[in-house]
Amino acid sequence: MAILIVWFAARVVYWNGYYVEDSPGYVSDAIWAAIGDYHVRDHVNGLNVGTYLPVAVPLWLFGKSEIALSVWPMTCSLIGLLSLAGTSAVLFGRWSGLFAGLLYATYPGDVFFSTVVMPDALQAGWLSFSIFLAALAHTQPRYRKLAAAAGAAMGICHLMRANDPVLVPIGLGAVAACSRLWRHEPIATTLRSCALFAAGVGAIYIGEGLVYWLTIGDFLHRFHVVGGHYGSAASIAQAGLNVDPRTIPFSIFPPVLWWQQGLQPLNQDQAYHALQFCWALLALIAGSLVLALARRVVDAAACAGIALAAAWFAWPLLYHQFGSQSVTAYVPMHRLSRHLVVYAPGAVFATVAGCALVARAGRSVSTTVQASLAAIGCALLAIHLTFNQQGVSIAHQAYQQIKGTYQRIRDELPADVRTITADPGDLCFFEFWLSPLGREAVRVVPFANVAGCSEVRDGVVLTFSNPGWQGGQAPIIRETVARLPCLLDPPKDWRLLYDGYPEKVYLVAR
To answer: Which of 66, 135, 242, 422 could form a disulfide with 462 if both were Cys (CB 3.0 to 4.6 A apart)?
Structure first.
């Protein structure tokens, strides 16, 4: 119960609600579904129905609110917490389960993304649930069919974001490790269990394909859309996707960057992960040494657990670093720090697995050595939790600065405002905040829809409302002000309603 309180409290303190990046698109699709006006999407994010369609339910029940947006992400986060604790308890014991729960409850990436509509924390929760069901399927023979349910849970991850080559092998590895290393089953039995898992995943694939076939006549709709977006290096370059190979190591292993540039505070990319992946790597090394030097203290369940931990930790990172986004050609993976949040449950599980084996080996040493190990462990946990708190604070404050700009503008808008003209990235906030579900109380007009200054005849105009305005560096801003010079040199009938330094709100009275 204490861990659940920590989990909930952390997400309340660092709650985000409406978010940027891809989230406005997901929220818009959820709103269309909530009002009963939804159709199949033909862009990549629109295919991630597992991310946003469940959000439509609380929106339909409670209307537009940021709390309603957080119901589904919080649910997935809780599923991840309980699943990680359950898997750790099954393979290493009750105390390991509690330790896993504590680590995940305080992991900055999940604390941050578990209150926003983005696929990262959602997938992490269902990936963890899939692995838990795979382990639970091997606790008793009568539970063996749960391997199919584990595959179905992995299929839900597919519906949230189709990164199957990264995630599905982890589930198959969990089934194989539990079958061979824990239960010492024949290869034929292991293969049958893996087939059950694959059948669960395949059922979701087939169900998705059938829906597309029945609605738009294309069973392979996802394959075609994703292939068009990620099918070549040119396509991801055109989309401006980051493929810098330094992103992953610098994000999850801060000492690598510190070694090059000197000791420094966590940066924005590192803030989501703090030192979790570092501890996981060290714990895996320590656990492997115990396995090699003191094999007698490692029972079959723990042996399966450390093997699963190694695969769960290493495979997704290696694939994301060296693998391909396309199944038809080699295309480097899109690399953002938040993408690695999906792999954090593996880092947590690896940390727990290594510590569990070290603790077992420690039972055979003297009381003095045990006390020393316990003191070191407590000190490392304190350091870990401190970095976690710093990390989530950095990430949360950075976003709240962005969101705070729009909140200040909202507070300064006239009560009777009916039209807002602004950059598209700004309008999503006001459209969500100011228009009730199913009704356009305030019309939002993106600059792209305005051909000239003479077309801006009423309402309010927002300028300098996002970082792209600073110095006019963003290409889209340069193009916009070239077409609409009044944004930099407002006419006399534009009254400065609010000057927030730098954001400005003009009231147009013509």
So the answer is: 422
CA gap 28, 56 in Å, rounded: 10
- For residue 29, which of 54, 7, 5 has the smallest C-alpha distance? 54
In terms of Cα–Cα distance, which of 285, 300, 340, 297 is closest to 317?
340
Tokens of 492: 């006399």
Q: What's the helix, strand, coil split of the chain in %, to 5?
A: 70, 5, 25
Beta-carbon count within 10 A of 26 CB? 24
Q: What are residue 460's DSSP bridge partners?
A: 420, 507
Mean pLDDT by 10 residues, the chain (510 residues): 93 93 91 90 89 95 93 97 96 94 96 95 97 95 92 96 92 95 94 96 96 92 84 71 85 88 86 94 94 87 94 95 84 88 96 93 81 88 93 94 88 88 87 88 90 88 81 75 88 88 82
H-helix or E-strand containing 496? strand 494-499
- Looking at the whole model, is its pTM more than 0.90? yes
